[in-house]
Amino acid sequence: MAKAAKKSQPRIVKTVKALREVLADWRKRKADIALVPTMGALHAGHVSLVALAKKSAKKVVVSIFVNPTQFGPNEDFSRYPRTIEADLDKLADAGADLVFMPDAKEIYPDGFATMLKPAGPAAVGLDDKFRPGHFEGVATVVAKLFTSVMPDIAIFGDKDYQQLQVIRTMARDLHLPVKVVGAPIIREKDGLALSSRNVYLSPPERAAAPVLHQVLKESAKAIAGGGDPEAVLSRGRAKIMSAGFKLDYLEARDAATLAKPDPQRKAKLRLLVAAKIGKTRLIDNIAV
After folding, report:
1. In terms of DSSP bridges, do strands 59-64 and 33-38 run parallel, antiparallel, or are they unpaired?
2. Beta partners for residue 154, in sequence order
3. How many CA atoms lie within 13 A of 59 on its CB side?
4. How far apart are CA 288 and CA 273, in angstroms?
5. Among candidates 170, 177, 174, 150, which has minimal Cα distance to 33?
6. Which residues of 24-63 are buried (b: 16+ CB within 10 A; e: fewer)?
7. What residues contact 28, with CB distance under 8 A and at least 6 apart?
8. In whole angstroms, what is the distance from residue 49 CA to residue 125 CA?
9. Hey, which residues are catalytic here?
């Protein structure tokens, strides 16, 4: 049987000028536009974002940019996986229309001097506590992507839940005319959330990693059933650490603001966890 013809790769642009020229032509033809920002090393979770984008708009732009300003001095910027050819093959299969692949000089040219400093959900003692400066880098690069693409809708994964709430707040506060949408977490069969960093896990670490999702599920069920949140989470923290993780946090937070829950106010909760096993830091979250 003959093999099916391989889909042609989406068009690639590397400068904001070239990007805007393509977008201007699309807009002349009344096409609405969805943006999927990524740092590459694409997996099925990213592909699901592109699929949702295709359902939401006529044209889909995917950005691939490993953003140096969101990595701390002791983080894995140089080690972050870069798999461009495989990424482009996945995006061709997913039906992306355009890939924006700038280099660092395009995003942060000589003399660049303006960084956003988000507060609100960016300053609640979760990832901001353990990754100082991270959300300044995230907010700045996403704002630049939004103002360069001017998408009608932007799709982000729920896995980076604090990041999603930071971006929603930033877009609202700056009156950016884009609808920010969160997409469900894609998981392995054993519950581990898909992440580009999972490739760093050794076989024993990979075997232990699903405990994060197990604890989240157990804790959410117990809290929803009336269990004392702090007692439930205390048991969950002990289970995560006994599995070999160095725990950064396991917390119950207001799902909208990420502030600590007010016992006098009924609000939807989100459980969030970050923990390191070996050299790999994993994050996950779940609704209560």
Report:
1. parallel
2. 35, 180
3. 22
4. 13
5. 150
6. eebeeeeeebbbbbbbbbbbebbbbbbbbbbebbebbbbb
7. none
8. 28
9. 46
Please give the backbone phi and psi of residue 138, each rounded to the nearest 5 degrees, phi first.
Answer: -65, -50
- Quote the tokens at residue 214: 């197990």
pTM listed for this prediction:
0.94
Sorted by where each starts, the structural domains of the chain and their CATH numbers stand as 11-183 (3.40.50.620), 196-287 (3.30.1300.10)
pLDDT of residue 9: 80
CA pair distance 153, 187, nearest whole angstrom: 24
Tokens of 83: 């798999």
For Cα atoms 140, 146, 149, give the angle at the middle one, nearest 5 degrees.
Answer: 135
User: CB–CB of 37/96 below 8 Å?
Assistant: no
**Calculated CA dihedral for residues 159, 204, 76, 193, nearest 10 degrees:** -10
- The segments of the chain whose pLDDT lies below 50 read none
- Tokens 């995917």 sit at which residue? 62
- Nearest alpha-carbon partner for 216 in 278, 282, 287: 287
- What does the alpha-carbon distance between residue 123 and residue 136 come to, in Å, rounded to a whole number? 11
3-state SS, residue 59:
strand
What's the Rg (C-alpha) of the chain? 20
pLDDT given at position 21:
98
Contact between residue 170 and residue 139 where contact means Cβ atoms under 8 Å apart: yes
Torsion of CA 89, 90, 94, 100, to 10 degrees: -80
pLDDT of residue 103: 96
Return the pLDDT at 247.
98
Alpha carbons 39 and 99: distance in angstroms, whole number: 12
